[in-house]
Amino acid sequence: MNQEKSIFSKIIDREIPADIVYEDDKCIVIHDINPKARVHLLIIPKKPIDTLFDLKPEDRDLMGHMMLLLPQLANAQGLDGFKTQINTGASGGQEVFHIHIHLMGN
């Protein structure tokens, strides 16, 4: 695991501001600062996990929680369809090494 605190951890800890859409004990959801669609949210687990490669069996419930949250968030944003994306590793386009799911829709 990366020892340096990610921008997402700083947002979770309220060290830097973000446009928060939703939050619970497991994750936080924010608007992407560089949106690629009319609705572009980031679903970020509060547990810092660098990439999908770093998931452990005990993270199953956390990832399931985030997946089940996606359609609820999409409905709340008025979307009748959406796209999700998880970039993994630098060669997979990941820029922030703290797992997050992009939810995008128009």
Automatic annotation (TrEMBL):
Lineage, top ranks: Bacteria, Pseudomonadati, Pseudomonadota, Gammaproteobacteria, Thiotrichales
Annotated SUPFAM superfamilies: HIT-like
Family annotation (PANTHER family): HISTIDINE TRIAD HIT PROTEIN (PTHR23089)
Annotated catalytic residues: H100 (tele-amp-histidine intermediate)
PROSITE patterns: HIT_1, HIT_2
InterPro entries noted in UniProt: Histidine_triad_CS, Histidine_triad_HIT, HIT-like, HIT-like_sf
Organism: Thiomicrorhabdus xiamenensis
GO molecular function: catalytic activity
Domain HIT positions: 7-106
The protein's name in its UniProt record: Histidine triad nucleotide-binding protein
Gene3D superfamilies hit by this protein: HIT-like
Segments carrying motif Histidine triad motif: 98-102
